[in-house]
Request: fold
Amino acid sequence: MRHRSLIAVTAALAAGALTLTACGSRDDKGGASTDGGNTTVVIGVDAPLTGDLSALGLGIKNSADLAARQANEKKYVKGVTFKIEALDDQAQASSGQQNATKLTANKDVLGVVGPLNSSVSESMQKVFDDAKLAQISPANTSPSLTQGPKWAEGTKTRTYKSYFRTATTDAIQGPYAAQYLFNKAGKKKVFIIDDKKTYGAGLAGTFKGEFTKLGGAVAGEGHIDPESKDFSAIVTQVKSSGADVVYYGGEYPAAGPLSKQIKASGTNIPLVGGDGIKDKKYVELAGATATGDFATSVGAPVESLPSAKDFIDNYKKAGFKDDYSAYGGYSYDSAWAVIEAVKKVVEANDGKLPSDARAKVLEAVQGVSFDGVTGKVSFDEFGDATNKQLTVYKVEGDDFKPVESGTLAG
Reply:
């Protein structure tokens, strides 16, 4: 990006030293009111910026930041300057809820990008919904967040109208992995492990349902504590089970060591997981024996999309220290959905924000439709992404390489 003092701004943001304040007077219904000058709209970001999952969280933050910078550079919304306020949830639900409360208290925040973890989102949704503040996650995949607790029984209910996501759900991701492993990779007997969290357990459950439906056998099931790095007990079960593949519902900090220990036991079978393990850090943690492990992730590989070329180029020019990682494109599109909604609201109100800006922006997000980094961006009646594409990746060398992209069969 070609922004003034770009390096200084980036460094200050990373260090937490830059305070983002709004110009213009604040009203009590959300958004800085215009008084003849420029109006600042803040886009909140919530993600794990420190800790084991920070590689993914920093990519989310930086990509949302890039969207705000580009909107300002293009003067995309006349009279409006976008800034971000990024808060660290450390992948903890309690921190996420505190951050949600803090973001809603800032009346200039008209939309929020994040979080990474579905379990964190569960603690934030009501806070945002009560405040009529639009929340768009680039990474949450638990179906219950949009379709309610009984979605698996066929009863879909949208509990929170303020919640949206640009990533597809585990209702699709788990079965997609099962279809690939059974039909393409020839795996017929699986040992299923999860970390007992919202994301991991839900993903493992949807995978199991489709794998058994296809005729696959479940050789065994178990759970691990992701905070522990000694998985010898479950590794012993895997070794004696006769499974030809392990499916893990969880994230890379535990999945990497788990894969390494399974291979070290003499059990040379691949570990497969969802988007939560699809990061270069997984390969570092799993070591050389990770070759041949698989992961699914939402959408097509960003690097393969013509629509993402400018994003990748601009991200590099911006000089961010951290990679955009698995959810960078989705984070950029989430932030841009807020920007599009603000544009629509401002243009419909004679070039300024209305007194009920939050509620109006929330209404506008439901109807956004644009060509984004990750493809067509729009939301269905539940707030789910209409883009249902997924990709299978395989570990080759020191990273995941795309194998196949598509949509769920049937």
